[in-house]
Every structure is written in structure tokens, then in C-alpha cells.
Protein 1
Amino acid sequence: MLRIGYGEDAHALTAGRPLVIGGVEIESERGSVAVSDGDVLLHALADALLSAWALGDIGKLFPPDDPGSRQLDSSVIVRRVLELLARRQEGGWHIANVAAVVTLDSPKLGSLRERIQREVSGLLSLPDGAVGVTFKTSEGLAPDHVQARVTVLLQRTA
Ligand code: C5P
Ligand code: MG
């Protein structure tokens, strides 16, 4: 049996904020405007996982006006989603693979791909090669934003 999950996220970019993508802090003059650390990739991943089981989205779990969401490390969000899923699902499900696209005009991220992929696969306890991340520019159409789109494929073996 298979299930698919899909999630998206976008943040505006501004000077003086960190740019964190897939748990990796990127050297950049601008970072995500956000209540949490603004990690678009992990936010889209969390929504992809929740959507696979029709459990809503991270705004429901971590309301932006909740003081607990402030400056939150987004790996905490993903871990909490994984815990929720482990409690809710019938057993036997595992993540087969994750495919992600990050759209950002600058800086270029290609040299960080393996680090980001490893960070995300580690967070999900997946082997190397199970998380693929591609990068796109917006071709100048959205130079002040960073965006991510993530699909997850889940497989039931039991
Ligand atoms: O958006 P575009 O097709 O022009 O991107 C060309 C290539 O630049 C991508 O395939 C990707 O390898 C790389 N890229 C990158 N970091 C970004 C955006 C694009 O490494 N922030
Ligand atoms: Mg976000």
C-alpha cells in the first residue's frame, strides 16, 4: 500500500535574519522572515507528512501566535510531526523517499545539496539517497522569497 504527501512553504527574505534550509544555516545577506527559524524546507516537509494522513497542517499544531513557536528550531516541528504520526498511524508504514524543490534566486545552493540531503535524511532516520533536493531560481520573478515544495512517498510493508 502507498500514500503520498505534499507540502509547500514560502518566506519573505530580509537582512539580519538567518537563512536555514533543511536544518543547514546558509551564508546569506538575507534570511527568512518568520516566527520560527523560517526553515521552508522543513516546514514543507512537515506539511507533506501531515497531509499524507489528512491530519491538517503545521499551523494547526504550532499556531504562529503561540509564544512556544517563537524562534523554534524547525527540526523540533518535524520531530513532533513524526511522533504524532507514530501515535496515529496503524503500524507498518515507512517513508520510501522524499523529493524536494527549493526556489531561491540567491545564493546558489548546489554546493550544499549533499549536506542538506544528509541533514534531512538524518532527521527522518532514512538512508543516504532517500532524500533528493533540487534547486531552482525564480528567474527573477520572486527575488525576495524563498520557497519549498516537498513530496513524500510512504509505503506499508506489514
Ligand atoms: O532556475 P534555473 O533553472 O536557472 O537554475 C539553474 C540551476 O542553478 C539549477 O538547476 C540548480 O542546479 C542551480 N541553482 C542553485 N541554487 C539556487 C538556484 C539554482 O544551485 N538557489
Ligand atoms: Mg514556514
Protein 2
Amino acid sequence: MSLRMSRRDLLLAGAAMPVLLSVVPARGEAQRIETLLDRMTLEEKAGQLTLVNDPFRWRPGNVNPDAFDPGQQAVAQEIREGRIGALFNGIGAAQARYAQHLAVQESRLGIPLLLAADVIHGLRTIFPVPLAETASWDPDLAARTARAAATEAGASGIHQTYAPMVDIARDQRWGRVVEGAGEDVLLGRLFAAARVRGFQGDELRDASSLVATPKHFAAYGAAEGGLDYAGAELSERALREVYLPPFRAAFDAGACSVMCGFNTVNGIPATADPWLLQQVLRREWGFRGYVVSDYTADAELVSHGFAEDARDAVRLAFLAGVDMSMNSRLYQRYLPELVAEGVVPMARLDDAVRRVLRVKEALGLFDDPWRGMDSEREARVVRAPAHVALARDAARRSVVLLRNEGGLLPLRPDLRLALIGPFGADADNVLGPWSIFGEREHAVTLEAGIRAAIADPDRLTVVPGSGIESDLPGGIDAAVAAAGAADVVLLAVGESQWMSAEGHSRTEIDLPPPQAALVEAVMQAGRPVVVLLKTGRALALTGSVAEADAIMVTWFLGQEEGNAVADLLFGSAAPSGRLPVSFPLRTGQQPFYYARLSTGRPAQAADQAYTAHYRNLPDGALYPFGHGLTYGSVRYEPPRLTAERLMAGGRLTATARLVNDGARDADEVAQLYLRDRAARVVQPRRLLKAFSHVTVPAGGAVEVSFDLGVGELAYLGPDMQPTADPGWFDLWIAPNAESGVAAAFRLD
Ligand code: BGC
């Protein structure tokens, strides 16, 4: 037996509902689009679907593989001929006006260009990488940083961002974990929606708003073996329950574009998958925006072994539903002939062009093609003091304190400190791998931030000790000497930003050996050690680094990194971040995430045979999902439920008292997890259903309550429809996914 679910319940469960259509134009505007369509040649239509690298504006190198780039003159001529409709990854208001002028004043139909960019975590003011920011467990913070990024980008002549990246990532070997919201579906949904709201704002016509482009549709994060660009083999259930919901949340928040993934999903490239791009996206979800390919992904259908040649690749991608082609120039080249020969219906071409023009219309480009292109405004908003202050606040709230033995932190500012490790004075690994328009000179290093915060700047010694992945001659000896002369050692170790990034998967997610050797040697000095851990993914910490007195995950915190870390080290701010990814015991546990399905033989004692554990490891994480310490000391008292039985259509409330026995207030993130004891499809051992930020005063207590209805109990039944089964549920109110206080209730 199962329960029928009301519309409200379905909403709560994140199931089907009509999408908000923010790209549906008003009557007059729709007419303008139709009139244009009537006048366009096949070449001009294909041009609207052609997106190429911006050759006119400042564009950093090294973002994507080289592709055919004919230079400014040639691209200018193509724009005049209406053969290019969109440019990407250039910034600067003044030059944007030039490019726009070519389209609006020198092309036959005067259709404005769409200017896009990878504005992932800031444009010029760089905020924490998305994974780090998700550790704030504060979607509103993500909305605010996205808004600030959109304000800067809008003033720099950009209309669209290729963000948010909403790929769930459960294998930390995958390098692109750093760009998303981590392993959990609820966090994934909430951050996807918040980032879309932040980028798009209330009004797309506003020059501070960007079209959001959730990516990479779909299941790109499920790459086999964590190898970037590898295929995803997964059930439709996993796809629908885990990988699709963040996209759905992004569209529900109004996202009017989407980028498809490089990967295959069960053998079909996402760039040519009609099931994903038509059945799910359009028919089930009613999405009205446009689909853009990833970088040259249409051309790559040939190397996938899916298309015979480039022309065939265009046919397959376009007929499957990819409206715009990124940088391969293949749509420009082949679509006109494919339509002329009747291989591709004209109606399909018109649909795609209509979708792109609608987005241009929604941005107000037909009325004001110069929207936002104002150098004075650009100078005013770029790195505005309020954005820099937000970057510092966001960075503080992104740090996760994993360990703080004996309350070593916060530190007194008058201690002699040794800052040891390759990242202490380093400015190259502060901004993060997708901060393409950020500049190194604005990156506050750990050294700079700490020196500015201590009483006597000369009491800080800085020694690299080793390279990131190489030894440094004499480095360890110098580091050990510095450690011996200090009261406290700060060890800045971890990954470089190019160890977790696109195309940078790792087989071992640990400290590179030269740094591991450095840590071993420095720990021998016997001084208290605080590890400041750089990373863009969960790491497997083994050996001495895991035994340091304190460990702070500092990710890539963006330009204010050094200041933010110093604020936390010396206690002018307190840590409140929580892990959005599980830190495993060993790499070999990957894929590793807390919401694993229950097994018939759960692990028991570490050495008990014939149960689900690796023979050399206890079951579980080194630091579980959701974990993060504060400078307080909070314990959870057993929860009370308003009822032990939940009737269909009813609600119940679970409340726990949180007591802070510490001497400092604690910003606690109380988490609600559920487990369905018996369902018609095996369910996760625990699943996050809600969380709440509460400040628990030093020596005081607060109550935290969660309200539950049948919507929170739903899963996709055997027929793939949301359902909830009567029976018993376990509930935890918890500081992380592996602990907490428990209760049980029954759904009748
Ligand atoms: C990435 C996308 C990105 C695009 C444009 C691709 O390599 O996968 O996430 O938006 O390049 O830079």
C-alpha cells in the first residue's frame, strides 16, 4: 500500500510542477520575433545559434582547449553577415559596445549579440569557489555573491553566465567537485535555486542581471571512476532522484538556459540525447529556454563514436535538442544545408532560433542593445567595497573547522607563529580554478592576512618547506627549524587549484608526497599544529596531518582568503561552516557519500567478516558530511516529537534542545535526517531533509524544531512516481550525517 500525495506534498518532495516561464515574451515582443524569423535567411538563422570565443575583448588564456580562432577581422565580418549571434568569455564595457555595434548597426537585420561568460564565483571580485561557499550551508549567501557577480558582469557588458554548475559529485576523484554544491541532493537543490535567483535577480532586463545557465545536463558528475569526461552509467532512478533535482530546482527558480554535458548517460552522449533534452526537459518539465552545447561538444560526437562526421554530429545534436553550438562553428557550417536538404525540418530550426531570440528579448536587448555597457558604471561597481566586504564574509563562512583538540583555536595574537608549507605566501592558489577574470594581485595570501592581524608582524616566520608536488632542497630542514622556534605552527598544505578543476581528476585524493613528508617532519618538532587545508574536493587525510591539533579546511576562498582565515584563527570571527562532502578515510572508498543505500549486511565491528566494510577500514568517514566545529561546545539532547504517528495529510514537529557548554557562542547548523525502515525501493541509510542555523549562546541552550509532513517522506516508487509507504521512520537531529539524537515515528 502507498499514500497518494497532495500537490503540496509533491512540491515539498521536489516532484513535478509547472515551470515558471520567465522567457515567454509579451504579445508585441513575440510578434517582433516572428517578424524577424520571417525575414531571416537560413544562414542568419544558423548564425543565431552560433556562439564563438570573443576576439574583441580581454579574455584570459588557458580556459579551454585551442579551437579555430580566425581573428578579429574575420569575426567582425561574420557578425556583419549575421553568421554569429553570440560571443563568450570576453569582458569590458567599451569593447562590448564595438562588438554590439557590428551586430546592431552593420548587420542586415540588426539583431543584437548575446554576450556570455563563465562567471562562476565572481567576475573581478572573487568569492569562494562554489564548493567552499556551499560549506556555509547558507543558500542566501550564495544568492548574494551571485548577485554581486552579476552586478559586476552586467556592467562589463555580459548578459549570460555559464553557471551555476549543479552537478552532484559523489566521487571525489573527479576534479570538478570544486565547482558545485557537493554530494547532497537537498543542498544541491537549494544552492542551485539560490544561485539562479542571485544571477537573474527580479528583473532580467536590469543591467545587473545575467541569464543563468545551470550545467552540465545531466549526470556529468557521475563520471565513471571520477574521470572527467568519462561516461555515466546509472539507473533512471539514480538520475531522477539524485542528479536531476538540482536542475529542476534551477528551472523552477527561473533559469532560462541550460548547458548539456560532455558525458554519455548510459551510452548516449548528453549532447545528442533526445530523452534528456526533449522528454525530460521539455515534455516533463515544460522548459522554454534554450539549450547550449558545452565547448565543441557537438564536434566531439565524432570522437565519441556516435556521429560519422561533423555534419552528422550537427544533425544528431540539433535534432536531439541542442539549440546553440559553442565554438565548434559546425551549426554555422552545416545547418543551412541540412535544412535545405530536408534532413532537419525548418520548424526545428525556427524553434531553436525563437528560443534564443526570446532570451535576447527577455534581457531587453532589442530595446537597449547597449544595456550595461557603460565604462563609468563598470569602474564604479567592479570590486566595489561592498563586494570585497561580502567576499571576506563569505570566505569566513566557508571555512570548516574539522578538529580543534584542547581548544587550541582561537589563537592569541601575540604568539610566535611559523607559517609553513607551499601555500603560506602563495598567491597562485587563492582565487580558484574558475576565477577566470580575477587577478592575482588582488589575492590576499595567508601570509598577508595573518601578518595584518597579529600584534607584532615580526613574530611570524614564513617558510615554504616543500613545493606543492615537488621537494624543495633544504626545505624540510628550514621548516623544522622554524617550527622549533615557534609557539604554534600553521601548516598551509593541500592541493593546488589545478589539482581540482576541469580535466584534473586524481587517482589519489591525498596530500602530495612532498607535502606529506614535510608534515611528518614538522610534527616531530612537537609544537601545537594548525593545518590550513587547501583543497577543491574532500581529501583522504592520512598520517600525521590527520593528527594535527587543529584542522581548518580553507578550500580556495577567493580574494579575501588571507584576511578571512586570520579573522577565524584569532577569533574576531568564529567558524560555522559544515562539510558539503564526506571526507573519507582512504581514496579507495570512492565513490563515497553519506546517503548510501542500506545493505543487507551492514558493517559492524571493524574486523567482523561478511559485512559491508573494507577489510582494512572501519565503516564510515574520517569526517562525515555535515561535520564542522564551532568555538563553542554544543551537545544535542534527545528529540521530542509532537506525535509518534503521522497521518496522511498531517504534520508532526520534532524538537531538540541544543546546549552550549563552551565559553563562546556557537553558530550551529542543526540537521534533520530521516531513514525509511521499509520501503518498496531500498532507501538511503540516512537522508538530509532539512537544516536550521541557530546561535547557541555560551553557557546557554536553544531549541530547534523541524516540521514534517508526508512530502518529506516521499521517494520515487517502483513506477518512478513520488510515493510514501506507511510504516516506521527513524529521525535524527544531528550535527552531521554520522551522529545525532534519534527518535522514530510511524506513517499511517
Ligand atoms: C566547460 C564549461 C564551460 C565552457 C566554456 C567547458 O570546458 O565544461 O563548464 O562553461 O568550457 O568555458
Protein 3
Amino acid sequence: MVLKRPLIFLGPPGAGKGTQASRLAKLYNVPHLSTGDMLRDHVARGTELGQKAKPLMDRGELVPDDIVLGMVEERIARPDCANGFVFDGFPRTMPQAQKLGEILKKRNFPAPLVVNFEADHATLIYRLAGRRTCSVGGEVYNVHDHPPKVEGRCDNDGGELIQRSDDRAEVIRDRLAAFEAQTQPLINYYRSTGDLAELDGTAGVEEVNKRLLDILARHGADGNRA
Ligand code: AP5
């Protein structure tokens, strides 16, 4: 399967961006670029960048643009990004969106397709409270809708399943507020560039996946179905 446009998944925490980005990245054989995962990796390794990011992430605030942009620019210069990529959780501010536009142009990528995942607060909070992540391979589960076969253990590698520290109720509230204040304006921005597609993300994982693939076909992003 050939991906003809880079993909950007926009949407509030818990909307299902990561779940679908991981599936599509496998389907099109391109990297899944989650700035949240990149930052958590820095935090886990205790790098200087991770030490700066951790307190902000723990409070549900965004990490400064220069840190995130430096990380992304270095990542998409790598050879595995030559055939496109799926951005999950990036860009999140207007300066990030503008800089990404410049980087994509400089590297001769076509205009991205930006998919806005929509879901109501009750659905988001329910999903985030139930999320568990494998501490070894990063596989994502949900105690409500996608539990592991053995409680607390990953089906793939038996790794311990952990709850993300920012999935506590009080931090979820602040992450939602950060999304509304800083990221929601991107919806209008990408609508004005003609690159935006809206997706109702409240259905189950399979149905959302089907809707997403239809969007890609309709917007010329799927080389096999365009
Ligand atoms: P990040 O890791 O990007 O988190 P997020 O955007 O808040 O998104 P989530 O990962 O919480 O949700 P998701 O939409 O991916 O949902 P998922 O598919 O996992 O960012 C974390 C922090 O890093 C930020 O707060 C910020 O501090 C920093 N950061 C990151 N990027 C940044 C940037 N660009 N600039 C500045 N700071 C940045 O699904 C959630 C759960 O629901 C799972 O359990 C899943 O199994 C389940 N689920 C998914 N889809 C469905 C479905 N359709 N039906 C039922 N259950 C479902």
C-alpha cells in the first residue's frame, strides 16, 4: 500500500489518534511519529530534554515549541521517512504547524492530509481512565474495550501493563484545557488550507479504521484507492 500524502492526526487526548496511527503506519509501511512517545522516551532515558519535558507533561501542559520542533526536524530527516509518515499529536500549536509546513515544502513532500478526530468529553475520559500500556513494547490496551488476555500483562511479550502518569483525572482535565486553548485553532487553520478532513472518532476501533480509510481514499492519500 502506498501513502501519497503525509498524515497528521489532530484531536483531543483519548480520541484514538495513537491507536489508528499505529495501524495505518503498519498498513502503509511508514513510521508512526508520536511526539508524545518521543518525549516519554526522553523522560525514561533521563536526557536533558526529558528532564525539561517531564514536569510539564506531568501537569498536562504542552512542551515548548523549540524542543518539539527540534525533535521532529531531526526525525523526519531520517531515511525511513522518505515515503511519508503518520504524525500523531503533532503539530499542536500554530508555530508548530507553520514550521512543519516549511519543513514539508523544503523536503518536497505533498500537502499533508489532516484528520481531525472528534469525540465528546465523556468518551475521552472513559477511554483515558481505561488505557494501559505495555512497559516493554508500548502496545496499548484498554481495560474496558480491549483488555489483555491475562490481566496486567501484554499479550505480545508478557510485559507489565502500566497506566500513564498523565492519565489521572486531574491531569486529563488540564490536557483537555491545553487542547482547547492551543490546538483547537489548528482546525480552522487546516480548514482554510483545504487539508482538513473530519472524523467521528466515537465508534469502535474497527469502524473508525474503516471511516479513516475511506477518508484517505477520498482525499487522494491512498495510492491504491485514490
Ligand atoms: P500524547 O502522548 O500525544 O497524548 P495525547 O495527545 O494527549 O493523546 P493520547 O495518547 O492520550 O490519546 P490518543 O488520541 O492517541 O488515544 P489512544 O489511541 O491512545 O502527549 C502527551 C503529552 O506530551 C502532552 O500532554 C504534552 O505535554 C506532550 N506533547 C506531546 N506532543 C506535543 C507537541 N506536539 N507539542 C507540545 N507538547 C507535546 O486511545 C486512548 C485509549 O482509548 C486506549 O486505551 C485505546 O485502546 C482506546 N481506544 C482508542 N480508540 C478507541 C475506539 N475507537 N473505541 C474504544 N476505545 C478506543
Protein 4
Amino acid sequence: MRITRVIERTIKVESKIRNARVDLSEMTATIVAVVTDVIQEGRPVVGYAFNSYGRYACGGPLRERFIPRLLATEPESFLDDEGTNLDPPRILASLLAREKAGGHAERSMALGTLDCALWDIVAKIECCPLYQVLSDRFGTGRSATTVPVYVGGGFYGAEDPVATLRDEVSRWVDAGYRDAKIKAGGVSLDLDRKRIEAALDLLPSGGRLALDLSCAFDAQAGVAFAKDVKPYGLWWLEEPCDPLDYDGYHAVGETGVGIAGGENLFGAREFDNFLRYARLGSNIVLQPDPPLAYGITGLLDILSTAQTHGVPHASIYPHGGNLMSLHAVAGLGLGGVEAYLEQFGVFSGFSHEVRIADGRATLPALPGIGFEAQPALYAVMSDLIR
Ligand code: MG
């Protein structure tokens, strides 16, 4: 089998929201299609992916070196031992040839997006959903039928922030979510308190609330904020400090609040440093984003690194709120997946196959990742190969 074409395109995310540090008015994302010469039901098998959201498109390195490098490599070297399917880890290793060590963010998104599309192909050729492939190869082989899901949102930008948040949280509860995460750290403490209390008031009994601080604070301000909100018994404080401010994370963790981080770390080596030097022990939820950090293949390396630091799979909640993370959670037995319902244009939410009830998400049945059942997104993805 051969890869015959790889197409990428930049798509505007069209979002008016903001978190504590950035607004998303200029946000873009990259979509890719990897076309093979394998024919199923009269059509070539095509793998699709996008580079998550919240960081910008990564078409430059794809166009300038990784797509040409992929198409120039001998096809036989990309196949698994049986020669019947692609071998994404082998392909990733090949694409990393002639790349210097370190500086991961410069390439990890381009390669991670490509890698997710390759895993889509692998599962389509095996005629089963991606989570089943991951479970068979790297998990228990016994996939759950549902996985824990929490909903993210509560961005800033509304004229009446508390009333708007109340409406949003009510919609989440009506839609079947129990646990939630809202942005915080970007307005006065007084207003954030009102927002936290509004959300806690509406979540169902037992529902947990996390705050995403979007790297708003230095260590001193992070500690002060953590002490202020500790009485609320929050699920976690996410990214209180810059992703590389290990001492800051450590100091905030010392207050005794739960800590989460990792969506802005771009590979296993960066997770290793984070876990080694932030010294949070078991008080950490890790949130790797597969397409931002060398793909599903990169996630497998991150899981190994986490294990060496004693962080169990149950404490890993991949970032992204998309089908790629959903498959990773289900197939690799991770803690849970996040969901974003409405803020990110065509990239929002899961596919029509996924149902939410009582804080859990059902799993897609389509072969591969299943973007084909996410109509608005699939319309722009499939347009790549017209
Ligand atoms: Mg976050």
C-alpha cells in the first residue's frame, strides 16, 4: 500500500471568546487528509485529523518539510511487520530524521496532526473504531462502552457574565453532563467568586467543578488565588502558571488544591521535566493533547513517562474535547475526556454517534476516528480531496 497524497489547509476557528490570557479572535486550525491507494467500497481510504484548537494552524512545517518527506520515503518502510497496514510509530520515527533534538513545539503539532490521521487510516483498514485498535494493541483489549466526560466552557466575553454562565451551565446539565470546568483568573476575584458559586449552584449533586486559569499567574499570585478558592472544594486548578514554571506549580500545589496541567507541553521529554521538577507527587491531573504532542504515538510515550513518575492512567484527561481524545481515553483506559459544545465553530463537540448521559459519553462505531459522522467538520475535511 502507498500514501498517494497529503493535503493540508488552514481553517478559521471563528470564535469571539477569551480566557484569562488570550482572545481567540484570530484563531486558526489545520486540517489534514492523508490519501492511500487502499480501496474500500470503491473509494480510497483517507485519514483525517486536525490540530486541536487554542493554538494556531501548523501548515508551514507540513508544507515545507513533513509532507514532502513523507511522500519521498519508500512505502515499504512505513508498513507493519505483516505489510498489510501502516505503522504510525515507524512513520513518525522516519519523519523525525534530520530534526534536531528539543524545540518540540516547532514540529510536534505538524507531526502530531499527521500521526492522528495515520491512526485514522490504520483503524479504517482494520474496519473498526480507533479506540478498539488502541485497546487491542496497548490497552486491556476490553474496551468500555462509555467513558467519563466533563464539559468545558465558561469563557469570558459576555456582557452579563454571571447570567450567561448560569445559562451555559444549565444547558450542560440538561445535556447530561455532571462535571464541568470554567475559565477563571482573568477578572476580579469578586467576579470569579460569583461565577464559581453560580456554577456550583447548578451542577447536580456530586458534580465536580474545575477552574482553568490558562497560565494567568506567577507563583505568588497563583498561591494567593489557590488559597482564596480552596474553600470551594474544586476538582482542580488547571494551569495556574506558565507551563515551564515548575516552582510555580509546586508552590500552588503546596496549598493543597488539586492541580492539572500539560496541554501546553509538547512531548514526553517535556512531561518528564514537568513531573520531575514541579514535584507534585500524586496531586496532578495530566492533560496531553494528542495532535499537539506528536499524536497518538506521542501520547503512548507520554503515558510511559507518566507511569515512571507514578502517575496512573486514571489521572490522565487528554485535552481537546474532540474525537481523537475520546478514542485515546477509551482505548488506553485513561481517566476521562473533556467536551466543548459550542465555542469552536466546526471543530466543536463530538460526532452524531456520541451520546452523553449521566456524565458519560458513548463511543463511536464507525471505523477509524469517525469524523464522517461530524457533518460540519467533515464537510471541510472531505473538501480537501475534491
Ligand atoms: Mg486548559
